[in-house]
Every structure is written in structure tokens, then in C-alpha cells.
Amino acid sequence: MPQIDVKHALQPGEAIAKVVWPTIGATRWGRFVGQLCAIRLGVGRIFTLGNLLALATIPISLAVFFWQLMPGVIRRYALTNRRVIVFKGLARIEERSIGLDEFEAIEIRLLPGQQWLRSGEMIFLREGQEVFRLSGVPRPEIFRAICLKQQATMLAMRDVMSTPGVAAATPA
Q1: CB count, 10 Å around CB of 151?
Q2: How many Cα atoms within 13 Å fall on the side-chain side of residue 61?
Q3: How many whole angstroms separate alpha carbon 140 and alpha carbon 30?
Q4: Greater confidence, 162 or 102?
Q5: Which single residue of 4, 39, 44, 113 could bond 35 by disulfide (Cβ 3.0 to 4.6 Å)?
Q6: 31 Cβ neighbours under 8 A, 6+ residues apart
Q7: What gap in Å lies between CA 26 and CA 137, rounded to an integer?
Q8: Which pLDDT value is given to residue 170?
Q9: Are 31 and 25 in contact (CB under 8 A)?
Q10: Cα separation of 107 and 52, whole Å?
Q11: pLDDT at residue number 151
């Protein structure tokens, strides 16, 4: 099977600004590990049941991590200058996407177990309704801020380019 270059999957003039890989918090088993590790029963911050379970569940965590890297399972989230894309597989085939002008807000929700894993769900909203979701995003607050800045930049550029005087002043 020939490998597809990510640039061929993008639209003309589109460039990738940021790529993030989902954590094990995107899976049920990963969130289960996160719930076990978050148990604070014990003495102080170091000698807790959660830390002991973190050591005991290393094989599960590794199994989930390497399962997510399998050729048919692997996913990554790419932010471009026009949209957010979910790529799947080693060939980086576009699974789904949402344009930066197709949502109004991004909400972050933490499913049980994701807080310990420092990951979360990014939910893209339009008129208060979910239109797109990214699961297990690492440090979702940071990626959310980057997405909103990219959206504001794209919308501002669209406004500037649609102004009649600017189009005439642009060199050919």
C-alpha cells in the first residue's frame, strides 16, 4: 500500500499549525487506569494507594498505549490554518474534520480518570450543540487556546481580504 503524504490530504494553501496525539485517556481502559491512579487514600502525597496502583497497572497502560499505535488504530489531531482534522492510520488518512468557521465555542469536559492523565474531551459547539469531538486530548486547555487563536486569525484574515480596498491593493 503506498504511503500518502499528509500534504496531499490538505487543501491548496492549507498548512498544519499543530499536531497532538491522543493519550490513553481516549480509551475506556486508559480512563480506568486513571481512575485507579487518582485514589488518594494513604499517607501524604507519595505513599498513596493510587501511586501503588499506578505501578501495578503499568502493563495495562503500556498495552493500551501500544494498541493505540497499531497501524489501523493510530489517530492524531491536526490543527491547520483552516480546520481541525482527525487523521487515522500510518498513511494519515483524513477520518473527519471541522472548519474553523464551523463552530462558535470549544468546551472541555473531563471524563472520570482523565484528570489524573491530564487529558480531556474537546467538544466543538455551534449554537450550543456539539458538532465535533476530540477524545483524550493532552493538556486540552492549551490546545483549545491554540484552536481559538487560529480561528480568530482565520476570521480576521477573511474579513480583511473581503474588504474592497484591500483586494485592489494586493499585488498579483
Answers
A1: 21
A2: 15
A3: 16
A4: 102
A5: 113
A6: 25, 111, 112, 113, 114, 117
A7: 7
A8: 56
A9: yes
A10: 33
A11: 96
Residue found by looking up cell 487563536 in the block: 149
Q: Are 59 and 67 a contacting pair, CB within 8 Å?
A: no
The whole-chain average pLDDT of the chain stands at 90
- Cell numbers describing residue 38: 487518582
Grid cell 490530504 in the structure block, residue:
9
Tens digits of residue pLDDT in 29-85: 999 999 999 999 988 888 899 999 999 999 999 999 999 999 989 999 999 999 999
Q: Which three cell numbers stand for residue 112?
A: 472520570
Task: Name all contacts of 99-103 with Cβ < 8 Å and 24+ positions apart.
Answer: 100/147, 100/150, 100/151, 100/154, 100/155, 101/151, 101/154, 101/155, 101/158, 102/126, 102/131, 102/132, 103/131, 103/132, 103/151
